[in-house]
Amino acid sequence: MSEETTPESLPLSGVTVVDLTQVIAGPFGTMNLGDLGAEVIKVEAVGRGDRSRGIQPTPAYFDTINRNKRSIEVDLKTEDGQQIVRELVADADVFVESTKPGRVESFNLAYEDLREVNDSIIYCSISGFGSDSPYENLPAWDTLVQAMSGIMSVTGEEGGQPLWSGLPSGDLITSMYTTQSILAALYARERGDIDSEWIEVPMLDAAISWLSARAGHTFGTDEPFPRLGTRHPTIAPFGLFSCRDENIVIAAGTQSLWTDFCAVLEREDLLADERFETMHDRSQHPEVLTEIIEAELASASADVWVDRLQAADIPAGPIHDTKSIWADEHVVRRNLKRTMEREGRDDAEVIDHPVHFSSLQTHLGTPPEELGESTDGLLARYGYDEAEIERLREQGVVGTGDDA
Amino acid sequence: MSEETTPESLPLSGVTVVDLTQVIAGPFGTMNLGDLGAEVIKVEAVGRGDRSRGIQPTPAYFDTINRNKRSIEVDLKTEDGQQIVRELVADADVFVESTKPGRVESFNLAYEDLREVNDSIIYCSISGFGSDSPYENLPAWDTLVQAMSGIMSVTGEEGGQPLWSGLPSGDLITSMYTTQSILAALYARERGDIDSEWIEVPMLDAAISWLSARAGHTFGTDEPFPRLGTRHPTIAPFGLFSCRDENIVIAAGTQSLWTDFCAVLEREDLLADERFETMHDRSQHPEVLTEIIEAELASASADVWVDRLQAADIPAGPIHDTKSIWADEHVVRRNLKRTMEREGRDDAEVIDHPVHFSSLQTHLGTPPEELGESTDGLLARYGYDEAEIERLREQGVVGTGDDA
Which residues cross the membrane (chains A, B) (predicted)? Predict the structure, then answer.
């Protein structure tokens, strides 16, 4: 988490990733690789770039998922543009793409093409449904993946309609499998078990794998897992409760937590109430129990109740939103929101990598770049002289850095 | 994905993980390591085991997150029990734990303790809030992490209360960072950059990192990201729509998708309607647009409309639940639900690992075991003879395999 890193302290130091992904699924995964020390070269379409550069609010949305990447602006429909990427890949370890089916082939950037220039490349394809699916050509929007994977079906009020999980879960689950699978392949290559590798990460399959615990309900009962709002089928008190001003969450999920909870409420009389004797009893009377609890919680504010409950080590806390969370004592102490300074531009606000190591480190190295910010620098590093760069720019093979 | 693996084809072949985690966050992460070829030795409390062995429906719930693990039943409050784990760790590569603060120290299984028996151990601690938090002693239930991280705040109906994301997201996000961080450390160790390593994965921080795209809204506007049900703030038509029988999801998120969508509806007249001319126009009139669309969708069933829309490559699909999904054509073709046979027990139903490799493989090796199923086998492998095992069992140091 420290900014002071030595090359050896970054697990992926010296690893180069050529990144032909956009929006969230690919970029969040390659950001993880960058946080771990890889150099990520983000290849973007001339004049347009990653579609998420246009998602409101700009550039804040894009900035949160694109640190630690160098942006190069290349027209992959041109032979010269394809040649640039082949040269990047020749020196790289990993290539990641999330283009539409058939697109990398049309760019001459398929696995077989890139193996010709780099026989130890790890090539990762992110797609909606993989290469052997009835839905192969269907654009895999996150909301569609949430619907088709079952994620929406378990999200929502009891008796209400299925809802989004709020986070772009279909995308982010895919990101994590992308990072994980690339790391596994790098490890196998380092051990000498493989030369190069091709990896397919299908969004729908990735999302379905996360159903595991919920699908266990179906595998055991042959019933779909229900939507429960914030309730738990067999634990009470559990979920959202109103205090005088705001809601809080309480999860008094064991018998001893129930005893402690009644003590904090100064309602030890409830311990003698037959309706609430065992967890099973309590879960059979959730409505009357909630009514009794909320009558007590109405006497003070959410802040006060959270303090009292947490002081007794009862799992309870505020329901933060994406603004209030940054003032939380834990979040402030651990410095989770970071500002990355940029010369000549507004600073970027980002969320720090969450994992701590002892001798290894993660880093916030390069702030999110503007479209094509590193085009010239990268071309120069790969041997292009100024005249060549000028020619490529005039012919539209590389961008001018101006967003269209 | 194939069952026929050679040692070299599993990226983590030869890697041994000693696993002192339970419920979801740790076990889903170590299952990932097992899928990738690691041998995972699951250390469970005598007579009780992983708490999730008791979560209904049993054993289906537990089975979905505990394949590829060997169960050994050990009382860590005894010196002999601690010695057994030290011997396992002496030969292992990775140790993962998710016990309460102070617990591993009381078991003499802290990082410093285990480095004495294995100076190349990668030691991963999963906790709710990490070791430097005002909430350090608070039990980190998934629902609490969802509340405190902001995940609940973006989940729910417009104007309604915050809801769970349905999946145990706080746990599963933690799982993925656990797998990823261990892989990064294994890679660094293989390159010779580190000897041993200590890793801290805090659930709350992990969950907060997933806010990235949503927090971008706040960083750019200073406003919390709203709850939107299934609506999108700037895209229409988008979300859940009712057909004659059931709901489907449609995401016509570009101008050309809108044109194609109107063609499928046979309502090209809408293209000339001023209210719907641009994406911005359509997103300003979501209610009247939904009314018009649902009037058309009422003429046929969800199945029919999904076929028609998908045939035109429009992102649209069914809203599967945790039961209906297993009959989906894609899920069947890719064989995502698998049955693992067990001798003398009912088979286990599991969801396959979602990622495909070319030369590397993942596997479904060992089916989920009963509590302590491998106790004797593992003790024998580590040099305990029958008399010693008998003594340990009589003294309650290792279990009898009977669930209490």
Answer: none
